[in-house]
Structure formats: structure tokens, C-alpha cells
């Protein structure tokens, strides 16, 4: 039994307000470029978009050409460590510009651009349904806009498209089939969401074990990293951050090979495999009021209304935890499953009242 | 997590070997490669104990036994230090710089070697080593993000106002926060914050925004036509970054007991990804040459440890360092 939801790396709810001005307009892109190993002709592309050539066979691993420190069981000297460091510094600088904050609705995750025309890999649970509006924030704070393409919630892969015109920085694709347990790898992303003062956050670790569905590293990742890239020390994307356990050495990434099987559906903007994760619906719109969260409007047929909540109620607690802002209330709902019951404590006039709200699946519209 | 099936191999993935834990980034085998870094630094580090229990590492900053450490971990009690080589010696507290949570201590030892500070700027991706007093480092990581200011999270007194009026009239007291402990009750009207008069809710919110978690503000309160002052302690608001309002983020990103009690409010700090327990902050963060690129000042989350860069440390040290004894006293 997987408990993926419990460890999904959704970042904070976006607590309203714009973060940045729009990106400068850039010239329209040329023909879409196939993501490929442009700097290393020995390693061909591992996939191409649907309307082009089919997926080529993976290239043989050329591990023999890698610096010794990357392939030995453990580093044994300062010289080995310097070799790893030199490459880590280089890769961090090379790949960071292609790693973006991904904001969709109230969810904030990470993503990595893999083509100059702005195809972005992210996690399925960040992407969600097709054709939703996406806001991308670059490490330098620039903003671009786009849409969700397809997602597969089963394997947790998702695809996004930047629709603003531009020629975008992008990372090369790698192939997990060339990787081995023990390889040094780097995780990039935005734990905690966008932070104007901080830029992209870089972490180093090793592959602990590989499986087709997900692989484990000791690169620590956290909420907000979801959808960010795991790269090998050649700077190529081999995985997308997916979920974690409480142990800091248990960080799980979806292999980019998982994109191959459903690529055609993803680029067409279809959800593949498992249906989209059902989202919970409470039927109440919370707003920030000085010092708290107020229910501004209720769906008369929604769970909140049925449970007895009324517009104007000030939400004090959900499941025993203080609710101090509308975003906190939204977040509890976003993280809950349909069918789950939340205990909501509100202030109405001078009285404190408690209600049991049984969440419904979100209605299909919008 | 038990579902990573060995059948992986059958599906075209190259192997199902599991990396032995000694080969993890923080595994003993990997840390052995860093032994030269520890050899260069372990006599510049002390392990601080209060009443026999380790609370922090210390960074030796002077030839006369002066060391800096994380102030907020230095709870009251008998202070001693373990030194490299196994000696335990007494130490005394000299002063605290609240701004960056540094404390200066004097260690009763003459053979300690001041740490050497790195002069080059740190680079994202470079090794960041946390040596202890042992022969190999305690843990290692890399620089994750360049130095930035680490702000205090927003803090609250813990009330909800009555929205029927624009006056700052309290409608409700949040359980467990400062207002409740100070004895405020529903119906109280706030008329001044730290002696500055206020007439509406927004003014109160605006003034309180200047204070952070743990600080105390004085509120003048009107109750039943009488006015009186109360001291109210501010409590941090869970921010999105901290995500304490989330059912799993708190548990996963800020595991209880594994982050520092004080993990923010620093002038400048660089971020690294070393998995460091809160009771081993205060020691130097060093590069592969054994030069200090900072002092570890907080374990902040699952992914972040903060270190004060050398210029911040040097400024704090200049404030804390005891003035040379006057000549008259020296003659006595």
C-alpha cells in the first residue's frame, strides 16, 4: 500500500497577491526543438514530442568516459571530492535557469523546462487537470504564463507548456537506464514555494535504489519541491521529485522514463492512466479578515452549508488546529480527500460552534 | 516504504542494487574521505555540554580559549567542553549577541587553535563540511543557496477582533497564545500599543507587525470604563513556508525535535543541505581546505541548515570580545 498522498510535496497555498511583474516579451520561438544532448553528441535524445519521430532506443551508457570519482563506490580522497565538487558547481549553474516555480490554482510546486519552446516537466499531482492556467516564476523572479497539458496521476508525471512567446532556457534529458545506485545526483527546486530573496535551492546526494516507478535518493526534498528535477552530474534530468517519508534519506523521484509511455497523451493535453486525483469540495469561500478567516459565501448545496455553517462565520479551528488565515483553511481542504469529515470550529456572534463537515468530490465544472 | 519491488530489473531498469547505508552521502565510508578536513579543523572546535549533556559545538576564535556558539542552545547549568583528544575542561559564558543568536564563551584550555576563515566567496554546489572533534566530520552537505537575510516569522498576540466595529475590540481569545495568558477577555478594547494610542483595528495590526515571536508588547486595555496596562507575549504566525497549518507539511518538513528552537531572524545566512541535529549547531562550516565559510546557526527544516557567513560572525565577535584589562588592574 502506497501512502503517496501523505508525503506528496505540495507546497504552500498561495496566499493571494501578485508576486512579480510580467516577464519581458521575447521574440517568437523558432521550430520546437527536440530536447537532446546538445553538448554531447555521443548521447542522443531519449524521447521526442509526439508529432515527431518515435522514441529512439536508449544510448549505451558511456560511463567509462565519466570522471573516476563519479563511478567509484565511495570517494576515497580529497581529490575525488574536489572532482565531484567541480562538477556539482558547474551543473548547479548550468541547470538552475531552467528550474521554475509552478503555480496552479492554490498549489505551488516546481518544474523543469526541457525545450526552448517551453515544455515543462512537473509532477502529476502538481499538474492536475489539463488546460488550467499556470504561472511560472524563474530563479531571477521573472514570470511567464502557460497551461497545463496532460498528467498521469498513477505514475505522478505531468506536463506543462509556457504559452508566452520566448526562447526558454532548458535542461537536457537524461536516461535513468544509464544510472546506477551510488551515482551522485543533484536535486533542484523551490521548497516552501517562491522566495524572492532565495532563488532555486540545490541539494546533493546519491541514488540509493532504482525501480521503474520511482527511485530513492538521499537528496533531501520537501513541500514545494514536487515536480522539480533530479539531475545526474552531467546535468541531465533523470527524475522528477514526487514524494518523501519522514526519514531524510527517503526521497522519491519519478524516473523520466515514465514520461515515455504516456508522452503522446501528455502533449495532447490528455490525462493518461489513472483518473485525476479526486479533489475535495467544501462549498465555502473563505476570505482573510483582520486577524482571521471568514466564510464569505457558501454553496447552499455544498457540504459546509449542509453541516450548518453560515456566511459570516469566523473559522477558528479545523481538526483542532488554529486557523489564522483563509489560505490555511483552503489548504486543509486541498489536502483532504473527498468523503473525509473535517471538524470545523467557528465563532458566530458571541458563540463558538463546532460542525462536522463531510467533504464531497469537487464538481466537474471549471 | 517497502514497495520498491525487485522486479524492477525485468522492466528494463538496469539493476536493483541498494546502496549500502555506509555509502550514503552521510555514511561512514563517504565521511572517511573527509578525514583530512577534520584533521585540519578539529582542534578549532569544542563540544559544549551543560550539566553533562551536549548542547552545541563551539568555534574557536581566539588563542586565549575564546569560542563562539549558538546562544539559544546554551541553557543554564554547569558549562564544560569536550576537546579533540578527549579532555573535558570547564568553560564560562562571556556574552550573547541576540541579533544573530551567537554566544561567546571562554574555554579553560591554552592549546586551542583559532579557526581560519575562508576569504573567497562561497559557490552554490560546493562542499559544506561540519566537522566535530572526532577524526571524521559529523556530517556533510553542499551550499544550497547564497547568503540572504532570514526574517522572523510574523507574530500575533492571539485575538480576533469584533468586526461589527472599527474599534480594536476583542471578540475572541485564541487558546494558548499571549492574550489568553495575559488575562485579556472578549469585550476588551485596546487603546494603546507600547504607549502609542490606537483607535482602529488596522493600527493595532500594523504596530504589532514590528514585533516577533517571543517579544513582549504592552497593551493599554479598556475594560468596564477602566484602563490598565498588560504585557502580552507575541507568538509566531505559521507562514506558508513553515506550513504549520498543513496536516503533513509540519510533520514532514519540520519534524518535531529535529529543527532548532530559534531558526530565523538572522542578519545574513547561507543555506546548506547538511542534515544536522539542532544540538550540533554552533560549530564551523568549512570547505575542503578546512577554511570556515560560516558558523552553523540553525537547523531550519528537512532541507535547510543555516550558517552565518564570516563577515557576520566577525562583526558579532567585535561586539562581544572583552575589552583588554586596564593597565591598573593588570599591575595589581
Key terms:
heterodimer, A: 366 residues, Pdz3 Domain, 6-stranded antiparallel barrel, elongated, disordered N terminus, B: 332 residues, alpha+beta, Thrombin, subunit H, 6-stranded antiparallel β-sheet
Mind explaining what this structure looks like?
The complex is a heterodimer of chains A (366) and B (332). Chain A has 2 domains: 4-267, Thrombin, subunit H (Beta Barrel), CATH 2.40.10; 280-361, Pdz3 Domain. In chain A, 15% of the residues lie in helices and 32% in strands. Chain A is built from 7 helices and 21 strands. A 6-stranded antiparallel beta barrel of chain A has the order 1-2-3-6-5-4. The model of chain A is unreliable at 1-7 and 10-60 (pLDDT under 50). Chain B has 2 domains: 28-150 and 260-323, Thrombin, subunit H (Beta Barrel), CATH 2.40.10.120; 155-236, PDZ domain (Pdz3 Domain, Roll). Chain B has a 6-stranded antiparallel β-barrel. The longest helix of chain B is centred in the C-terminal third of the chain and has 11 residues, at 310-320. Chains A and B meet through helix 3, strand 9, strand 18 and helix 7 of A and helix 1, strand 8, strand 10, helix 4 and helix 5 of B.
Amino acid at each position: 500500500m502506497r501512502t503517496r498522498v501523505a508525503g506528496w510535496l505540495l507546497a504552500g497555498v498561495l496566499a493571494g497577491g501578485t508576486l512579480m511583474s510580467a516577464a519581458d516579451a521575447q521574440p517568437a520561438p523558432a521550430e520546437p526543438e527536440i530536447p537532446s544532448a546538445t553538448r554531447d553528441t555521443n548521447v542522443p535524445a531519449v524521447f521526442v514530442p509526439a508529432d515527431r519521430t518515435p522514441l529512439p532506443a536508449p544510448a549505451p551508457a558511456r560511463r567509462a568516459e565519466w570522471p573516476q570519482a563519479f563511478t567509484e563506490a565511495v570517494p576515497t580522497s580529497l581529490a575525488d571530492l574536489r572532482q565531484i565538487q567541480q562538477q556539482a558547481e558547474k551543473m548547479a549553474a548550468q541547470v538552475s535557469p531552467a528550474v521554475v516555480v509552478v503555480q496552479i490554482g492554490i498549489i505551488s510546486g516546481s518544474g523543469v523546462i526541457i525545450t526552448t519552446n517551453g515544455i515543462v516537466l512537473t509532477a502529476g499531482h502538481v499538474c492536475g487537470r489539463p488546460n488550467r492556467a499556470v504561472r511560472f516564476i524563474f530563479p531571477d523572479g521573472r514570470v511567464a504564463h502557460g497551461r497545463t497539458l496532460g498528467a498521469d496521476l498513477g505514475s505522478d508525471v505531468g506536463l506543462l507548456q509556457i504559452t508566452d512567446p520566448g526562447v526558454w532556457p532548458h535542461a537536457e534529458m537524461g536516461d535513468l537506464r544509464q544510472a546506477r545506485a551510488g551515482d551522485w545526483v543533484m536535486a533542484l527546486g523551490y521548497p516552501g514555494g517562491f522566495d524572492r530573496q532565495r532563488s532555486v535551492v540545490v541539494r546533493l546526494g546519491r541514488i540509493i535504489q532504482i525501480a521503474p516507478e520511482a527511485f530513492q535518493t538521499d537528496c533531501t526534498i520537501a513541500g514545494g519541491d514536487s515536480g522539480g528535477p533530479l539531475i545526474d552530474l552531467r546535468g541531465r534530468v533523470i527524475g522528477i521529485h514526487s514524494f518523501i517519508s519522514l526519514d531524510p534519506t527517503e526521497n522519491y523521484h519519478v524516473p523520466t522514463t515514465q514520461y515515455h509511455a504516456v508522452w503522446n497523451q501528455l502533449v495532447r493535453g490528455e490525462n493518461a492512466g489513472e483518473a485525476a486525483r479526486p479533489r475535495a469540495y467544501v462549498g465555502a469561500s473563505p476570505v482573510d479578515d483582520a486577524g482571521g478567516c471568514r466564510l464569505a459565501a457558501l454553496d447552499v448545496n455544498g457540504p459546509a452549508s449542509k453541516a450548518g455553517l453560515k456566511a459570516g462565520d469566523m473559522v477558528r479551528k479545523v481538526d483542532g488546529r488554529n486557523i489564522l488565515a483563509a489560505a490555511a483553511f483552503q489548504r486543509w481542504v486541498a489536502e483532504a480527500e473527498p468523503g473525509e469529515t473535517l471538524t470545523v470550529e467557528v465563532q458566530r456572534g458571541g458563540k463558538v460552534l463546532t460542525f462536522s463537515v463531510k467533504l464531497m468530490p469537487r464538481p466537474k465544472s471549471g | 516504504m517497502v514497495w520498491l519491488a525487485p522486479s524492477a530489473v525485468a522492466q528494463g531498469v538496469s539493476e536493483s542494487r541498494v546502496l549500502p547505508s555506509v555509502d550514503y552521502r552521510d555514511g561512514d565510508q563517504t565521511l572517511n574521505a573527509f578525514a583530512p578536513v577534520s584533521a585540519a579543523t578539529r582542534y578549532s572546535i569544542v563540544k559544549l555540554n551543560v550539566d553533562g549533556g551536549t548542547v552545541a559545538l563551539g568555534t574557536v576564535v581566539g588563542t586565549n580559549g575564546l569560542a563562539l556558539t549558538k546562544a539559544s542552545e546554551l541553557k543554564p547549568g554547569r558549562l564544560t567542553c569536550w576537546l579533540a583528544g578527549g579532555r573535558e575542561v570547564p568553560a564560562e559564558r562571556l556574552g550573547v549577541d541576540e541579533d544573530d543568536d551567537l554566544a561567546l564563551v571562554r574555554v579553560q584550555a591554552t592549546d586551542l587553535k583559532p579557526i581560519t576563515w575562508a576569504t573567497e566567496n562561497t559557490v552554490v554546489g560546493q562542499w559544506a563540511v561540519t566537522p566535530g572533534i572526532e577524526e571524521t566530520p559529523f556530517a556533510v552537505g553542499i551550499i544550497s543557496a547564497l547568503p540572504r537575510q532570514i526574517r522572523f516569522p510574523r507574530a500575533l498576540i492571539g485575538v480576533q477582533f469584533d468586526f461589527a466595529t472599527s474599534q480594536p475590540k476583542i471578540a475572541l481569545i485564541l487558546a494558548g497564545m499571549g492574550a489568553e495568558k495575559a488575562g485579556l477577555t472578549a469585550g476588551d478594547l485596546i487603546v494603546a500599543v507600547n504607549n502609542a494610542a490606537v483607535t482602529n483595528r488596522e493600527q493595532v495590526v500594523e504596530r504589532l507587525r514590528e514585533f516577533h515571536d517571543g517579544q513582549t508588547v504592552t497593551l493599554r486595555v479598556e475594560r468596564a470604563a477602566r484602563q490598565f496596562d498588560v504585557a502580552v507575549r507575541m507568538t509566531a504566525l505559521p507562514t506558508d513556508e513553515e506550513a504549520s497549518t498543513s496536516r503533513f507539511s509540519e510533520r514532514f518538513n519540520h519534524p518535531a525535535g529535529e529543527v532548532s528552537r530559534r531558526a530565523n531572524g538572522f542578519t545574513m545566512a547561507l543555506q546548506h543541505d547538511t542534515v544536522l541535529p539542532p544540538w550540533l549547531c554552533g560549530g564551523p562550516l568549512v570547505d575542503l581546505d578546512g577554511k570556515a565559510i560560516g558558523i552553523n546557526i540553525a537547523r531550519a527544516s528537512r532541507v535547510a541548515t543555516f550558517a552565518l557567513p564570516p563577515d557576520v560572525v566577525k562583526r558579532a565577535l567585535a561586539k562581544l570580545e572583552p575589552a583588554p584589562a586596564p593597565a591598573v588592574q593588570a599591575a595589581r
